């Protein structure tokens, strides 16, 4: 997917941005990116089946012409040839449009927005728990979770942060990253947003003398 793959230099810049942001706060910042948060195959199949049905219905109006064409191709023509033509061509249409449905821009059209948002939130929450972000010493971990296909960003903060920083204050940070996804310039926007996170955290959670880096600074590229 264009704009999804990060170069080594991009990953280094993101890791450096996290390290710099954490140098002024006791909070922990984790970043993760995934191509898409869910396998939307059922929606892609439904899309292809609907197209296949429409194709079948439309082609029924041309049954006489198709039968005439088949009669000219096969000297031993029977009605079974017409049935096979409809069955095979409909299957081909369904197959083609199933793969078309896998194109990100098409996926965003055929999968309801509510479902996309829900799946990203679920995947981000699962990663938040699996990666141990919820388990930092002072419960001051945050996760910036980026799902490319859905063009959605989830920013999850642990309980220690939620007590002092409202969700609304993170929205500009989230919007900036989403803009980076749309412009296919995610590294610049993400590093800017990480720096903003560091500034916001520093207001409420300044760096402590005994502060330890509990989470990796590197962005985690998830396969599924």
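^ Assign residues to that structure.
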């Amino acid at each position: 997917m264009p704009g999804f793959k990060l170069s080594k230099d991009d990953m280094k810049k993101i890791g450096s941005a996290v390290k710099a942001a954490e140098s002024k706060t006791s909070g922990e910042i984790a970043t993760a990116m995934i191509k898409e948060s869910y396998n939307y195959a059922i929606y892609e199949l439904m899309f292809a089946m609907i197209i296949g049905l429409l194709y079948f219905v439309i082609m029924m109006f041309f049954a006489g012409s198709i039968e005439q064409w088949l009669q000219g191709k096969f000297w031993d023509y029977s009605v079974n040839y017409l049935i096979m033509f409809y069955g095979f061509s409909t299957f081909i249409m369904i197959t083609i449009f199933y793969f078309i449905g896998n194109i990100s821009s098409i996926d965003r059209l055929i999968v309801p927005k509510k479902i996309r948002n829900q799946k990203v939130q679920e995947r981000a929450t699962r990663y938040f728990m699996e990666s141990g972000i919820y388990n930092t010493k002072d419960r001051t971990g945050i996760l910036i979770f980026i799902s490319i296909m859905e063009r959605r960003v989830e920013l999850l903060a642990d309980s220690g942060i939620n007590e002092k920083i409202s969700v609304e204050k993170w929205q500009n940070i989230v919007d900036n990253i989403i803009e980076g996804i749309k412009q296919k310039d995610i590294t610049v926007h993400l590093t800017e947003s990480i720096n903003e996170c560091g500034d916001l955290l520093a207001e409420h959670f300044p760096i402590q003398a005994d502060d330890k880096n509990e989470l990796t600074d590197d962005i985690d590229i998830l396969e599924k």
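The two ends are 14 Å apart (CA to CA).
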